[in-house]
Amino acid sequence: MKLFKYALLAGAVALGATSAFAGESLDRVMGNNKLVIATDAEYPPQSSIDADNNLVGFDVDVGRAIAERMGVEAEFVTPGWDVITAGRWAGRWDMSVGSMTPTKERAQALDFPVVYYFTPAALVVHEKNETILQSSDASGKKIGVGVSTTYESYLKKDLVIDAEDVPEFSYIIDDADIRTYDSDVLALDDLRLGDGVRLDAAFTALPTILEAQKNGYPIKIIGPEALFMEPLAIATDKGDVELNAKIKEAVSSLHADGTLSKISEKWYGGDLTQ
Description:
It is a single chain. This protein is an alpha/beta fold. Helices cover 28% and strands 25% of the residues. It has 8 helices and 12 strands. The strands form 2 sheets. Strands 1, 5, 6, 7, 8, 9, 10, 11 and 12 form a 9-stranded mixed β-sheet that branches. The protein has a 3-stranded antiparallel β-sheet with strand order 2-3-4. Helix 2 (58-70) packs across helix 7 and helix 2 runs antiparallel to helix 8 (259-268). The relative contact order is 0.23.
């Protein structure tokens, strides 16, 4: 995987009941012999639906591996990102494996039992763009992002990442004309229409950009540095410490025996899990 100069190896509102009581979610998972996992249907290579209508991707493989380590079957659902991040899932799914950054705002509704990999946030423009040569040149420009994402928060200058060992970052883009989409890929779809046709730039995870380039999108990365490094975490509904401990134990074992590294190599061509 071509990583350019980015330091890749550096280490979705729902109705329902209130937060889970301790042990309630884990009891449901073990009693049903099924771990219901929320992820995104349009976020390759993390997660997407293939030609055979199957969910595939890095997050999908990680979700299956966690379920296997817990001794249960994996089942996937694809609610909207804003529904996932709002919390109060009411038992409709048990955890989210969706490349979610643990922020202070999200932590009011969700728990983040464990970080499982890291990725850079990158700015991208149409290949014919000649005015945005560095990130600060995107100030005041039309920038597409997924709704309720860390990329939107960054452009609003209110991003708070609550995780250990996260490199410091600064806000380089001022007064962005933020255009939100149901998914990051939809923003890239509009950018590919032409320079300034609908967007001047898009902002998302580097692996998502590289996947789009591999699929022929006429876009180029503005760099060389990532605007911020994202720790990506498993998310659960608020309150079930027993489920959180079980998930953390499973992910720790996947780290220890190299399974997470192998899944990362498969989908990204490099180990983003350290």
